[in-house]
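Issue: ligand-bound run for fe (ii) ion - logging full I/O for the record.

Environment: standard queue, default settings, no custom constraints.

Inputs:
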Amino acid sequence: MSSAVVTRLPVPEYSKIDFGASISGVDIENLTDADFDVIRSALFTHQVIVFKNQGHASPKAQFELTQRFDPAATSYGHGKSLDAKRSILHPDLKTIPHQPQVQVIGNGFVPEYEGLQNIRLRHPHHRTFHATAIPDVDDLDFTRFYRWHIDAALYGLAPPVVTTLLAVRVPGGRRQVCRYDDGTGDELDVPLGTTAFVSGYAMYDALSPEDQELAQTARVEYAPHPYIWMSGAKSRSDGLGMVSEGKEILLDKLPAIEEDKIQVLPICWRNPETGRLAVQIHPSAVRKLHLADGTVIEDLAEVREIVHRLQRPGIAPPLVYAHDWEEGDLVLFHNRGVLHSVVGAFAEDEVRLFRQCNVAASHFPLGPSDAANAAVAA
Ligand SMILES: [Fe+2]
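Outputs:
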């Protein structure tokens, strides 16, 4: 018997969030098989799971919980591609030497942590990634979603099933207003440095019947070496995909491309437990759209407009869960059922230290139908 207790997360009154739960009564450092059964079932039901007071958990215990969802998986979700200096992910992650599937992320200077010395962490700021930015004078009060994404290499390696994030150090709590800046007037009051989540299932449910049909039948082709490919381009102000200015790195300027590593994945991924369909697209890495009739849309601006049309309703303010981090929080999320984004801007002296872990999966996600799955396997 496990003493784990699963409780739905409280949500603000305006919220329409139907995901998220906390689990108490477990110690990540000493998980039993019975505990894990509860956690696994809760994960595929609630998508985002919060464990409080886990600051003592070792990088090894964090890795073991993460890997337990896919025991055949061993390497970090991005493999060694992070080493590529041109990758947009490169500056944001430091690898723990004795547990290389676990990365340190955060903000500010840290003299020593888990074998890493004198590390300078940088919380990603939207001004480095978006085509436009909030003026400096407003930067303390207002912020944006940095980049909505799935944790996935999207080239060669299969998308991780889950990701874990552990808050080791969290600077004190002011709040900011997260603006979409897309002409809608949408905005959201968020805790400083929140991680925002939206449900891919809610994203699917929000679509018109015609777009649900498109989402069930079309597939997305991702760019080769996507995080280098996109490094010249800039994001939309809502963090949901790139603007099209022809600034992507040309394919012949990328590292050598292995055709069999290019990924063409279903738009909808089926939940292995509930059978619900999630719209799961990494919008900034998208390059082409393959339609059911065999047509391939290659016009990047057109592809991005279609993808944005499918995803934007799913990030409306009432559908966003913005986690209010406290030290010791461990958040486990279903990387195949939610999108997430870094949010917020820290001052140089605000030290934040997090550990992130995911592992490239041993299998690709389930598509909406057996036919879609066969196409991925082919
Ligand atoms: Fe992430």
